[in-house]
Amino acid sequence: MVADIAKILYHESTILSRLDEMAHHITAEYRDKDLTVIAILNGSFIFMADLLRRIPLPLQLDCWSVSSYHGMKTSGTVHFRQTQLADVRGRHVLILDDILDSGLTLHAIKNRLAAESGAASLRVCVLLRKQVEREQVIDADYVGFDIPNEFVVGYGLDYNEEYRNLPFIGVLNEGAIQRNAR
Prior knowledge:
- The chain is α/β, with parallel strands linked by helices.
- The chain has helices at about 10-30, 45-50, 105-115, 175-180; strands spanning about 5-10, 35-40, 60-70, 75-80, 90-100, 120-130, 140-145, 150-155, 170.
- The protein has four helices and nine strands, in the order E-H-E-H-E-E-E-H-E-E-E-E-H.
- The strands form two sheets. It has a six-stranded mixed beta sheet with strand order 4-3-2-5-6-7, sandwiched between helices. A three-stranded antiparallel beta sheet has the order 1-9-8.
């Protein structure tokens, strides 16, 4: 697997150090507030686990399975795999996702929560924010790293459901992209 990586953007130690900083800011923001974290699966599960262990606050957690990607690009359609939302009326909601790219998925999630949830506030936290023009206007309130327009894997991010378990964030080489295309 490591041989499929053209370059490493962020080593595990760098990621964990940045999560310490993010957790500090999130803890300060949500102290004495009723917090619900909604993590977007599957990509955010490692990010979620490592970040939430650093936030010493009582919180509720819900995980949503939402996607708009097939292979290396968005399908243009956002699919919600659950029909019922968590009860977050009056609570402060922090949406966690692995990457802000086209903006389609996070825009759809935030709009659905804004329309249906009665949340006291809605904020977005992403591990990565890709420096591209977005299809939907949305930004994140908390960002781990800004990255160039490259296809990245590792630390929960995948290519056709592979490479999620790499302990770093890296860019796939062309051979791996072609070999794993579906």
